[in-house]
Specification:
Chains A, B, C, D: Keywords: Glutamine amidotransferase, Hydrolase, Transferase. 4 copies of one chain form a homotetramer. With 264 residues, chain A is an alpha+beta fold. In chain A, 29% of the residues lie in helices and 31% in strands. In chain A, 57% of the residues are buried.
């Protein structure tokens, strides 16, 4: 399991949420509270949109809690749209290319969850990628594979939630074919730099935790509230996703795929 | 705090204690049980005596639990005398030179504890080092400073336990002068490659945990027993040290300095 | 390009060839003489056979010339059969999983060369791997893909040189289909822990340099002689491979595939 | 030896000088032209002034030429005042704390050169630091020691060039006392975030190369011109220093200490 946060709103220094708050993401890297493993020390990453067409990406292998580069970059960089992630590896190696977030063109993605029986379907998942995205793959995680499959659907014209639904449906079908009993869990954030989509899904109805806070000019989505006392946090319902655009508008909706997938 | 183990006996593969046992040191790096912090992810190190005059040293910055190099080296290397350590940093940076064990000539040392108010006395501690050992210092930890001060005493002819007593007495005096209230804690292992000394000391009578197991041809000393059910483990008494020579002879003795230091 | 060496003979400390000699592999990492790039600083690796069924592997990302762990491990470990490699990356990321040597079961492989137009045929190369080897892939290099394809042929019963011939033939055919003009170059070492095969091949007749030295109880194969004045080094002829067994017997033979591939 | 650059002027993306130009600093990390060693692969660092009181710092151990984080941060971060450095270590270990630039409060420093016989005078240099700066020391290099000594002089009220003169005079005196014959070389950049001072000094009149380019709204100082054909680059004379303020004003002046030190 992992912990992550996504911010969309008026530009703030990344450190506000990543390092400085009472239960910041860096604090969660050592003391996660709503997670099977309290320790998320297998690398970290931040991704942010600034003045460029593509997001900046800084991912490294040392635990977030002691990385002085992470702290300094987060102190200096201000962004109105950023992701941050601390990783607890589930089977794949610790390498920068396996750290979240993943970026491709303007898109960015991070994931907290897993594909049950991934080793049994990895090959068929990867085979479903179109050439360009196959070559864009840099690491070996299930998460990056899901991201690229979603982008393939988006490239065909699907709105992101439908692209996610179709990708998860396809993945679940591969798992069924391979006789996998373990669940598919997908608590994740996806953005094109303008609209943020966050999902809290699992075919066994036990998705990883996800919360959001909507305040004037600032929507934050996080695995765990970053300021413990804050009553402005709401849980994203299981089987739902939220959409954030232009700083404040947050829409919570049931995910089209959830019911069917659980049934399946 | 940190976790460590020392082995002296018939040569075994390092992995036996470092990676493979039920509560191996690698397991303790993520799930320490008798420690303020369960996570010891700020680097690790192994040091071992083989065919050379000086010990081998392999120290790195990533958490021990996911380091494939550590696992492979421990699978291949067999030694009758080795140290292993996983670190939870207490204020100094994560760098290889700050990872334990420390080695100098034939000597090796590792430490679980701390010098209270270290920043206030660091300069005077370092000033007490003779030139050659001042230059041998590679990192910035209190632990390495203590090691080199002990070696300075040994070089003057003191037996190791007396060298430790004198070093801790000197350090405690500096702390008193500086008005430091925090304790000096010293659970540590020291060896010249032939005799192993392990100490469990603290001026506030709350030293970090330390256990030993004496079996035919194998003495193991560890922060926590590495096989949980084993009733062959005994706690090293507070304020005591043990001496291990030629594979099996273990002597537990009260440490000469302890009483005086607590009084002081 | 990269530099490598392979040793087969009476057990020696790895440092003899890796660190200590006049033009050791570590020296070549900074001052390669027969290589397009003098600097081979994108990671390194050693692999050695000891008392275990599988080889030990130690690969890391920092330049070999300044890695104190590499130096210490090479000072301590003695082996009668080992590989060492320093990498100059050609397009793929610097990660441990992309460092040579690669190991699978008892087999080990390292490579100095490249597949021209790799991005255009990577997908079809990987698709040719049987399931078990597809899942064994840990990195993203062309070299690891070639290694696993060779192992697939060996698993079908081919002797290693034929497995290499068949793999290179297949690769060359994919390159032709994709309209790739760049060459396929394969200076490489392969072993099962008992017999060592080293190849110096390229479809444009410009394979990377390779030398061998046969002395009593010691055969060394290296990209560049490790002791500059030594007249005991012979170049492996272009389009040839050598076989080393039981310490001394070295056979140089033309590689069956070379002529055909150049023609094609 | 090392290579570095300093920029002061209208805000630009760091990549312009660090990664993108024909002979950018990243290019110089692998192909330095005016340097004893062409390879500067022992870590790198960037430091920049943005919206905060203190500079941002990002230093890491892998060679600059293959570090994807460096590239991404330099693509995103825009600054009107920044430093960048690639290191070729001269005896001290490769660690983040030994990478340039060094920062303390608002001050930043980087160095290309060395203190001859540093091991013989290190202790006395460090002993000259006032307490607060002694504790601020994070690494073990001669460069950081010089930086902190200069800051100690500045704290006493010296203008930076005089602080440098006094520090180098003191260092040279220690070298003389210790009977050191090797030279003291100091090609360096120092700034408080507003005024940039760059020095090209050596007691043997063989300081490392240093150039500057003054264009409207942009002064760049670099070990080697970053665009090879550019005739807007001038060498900083040996024994001189330059001062850059408010974007364009560059003053080249003889360094007060140079003559005396050479005489001594």
């Amino acid at each position: 399991m992992c912990r992550f946060l996504a911010y969309h709103g008026d530009p703030i220094f990344l450190e506000t949420l990543v390092c400085a708050s009472e239960h910041s993401l860096v604090h969660q890297s050592l003391h996660a509270a709503e997670c099977k493993t309290a320790t998320n020390g297998d690398g970290f990453g931040i991704g942010w949109y600034g003045e460029r067409d593509i997001p900046g990406l800084f991912r490294d292998l040392r635990p977030a809690w002691s990385d002085e580069n992470l702290r300094s970059v987060c102190t200096q960089v201000r962004s109105g749209h950023f992701f941050a992630h601390v990783r607890a590896a589930t089977g794949t190696v610790t390498s920068r290319a396996n750290c979240h977030p993943f970026a491709h063109d303007r898109w960015m993605f991070m994931h907290n969850g897993q594909i049950g029986g991934y080793a049994q379907i990895k090959r068929r998942l990867e085979a479903a990628l179109p050439d360009a995205l196959y070559h864009a793959r840099q690491g070996t995680t299930d998460s990056e594979a899901l991201f690229l499959l979603v982008l393939a659907e988006v490239a065909k014209g699907s709105p992101p939630p439908e692209a996610v639904a179709s990708t998860l449906g396809f993945t679940k079908a591969l798992m069924r074919d391979a006789g996998v009993d373990e669940p598919l869990r997908f608590t994740a954030a996806l953005t094109d730099g303008e609209t943020l989509y966050c999902f809290r899904l699992a075919c066994d109805d036990r998705p990883a935790s996800l919360y959001f806070s909507e305040q004037p000019g600032a929507v934050t989505v996080a695995s765990e509230p970053v300021d413990r006392g804050g009553d402005h946090w709401q849980a994203v319902p299981r089987g739902a996703f939220i959409t954030v655009r232009r700083g404040t508008a947050t829409t919570v909706a049931p995910f089209p795929w959830a019911a069917e997938a659980v049934a399946a």
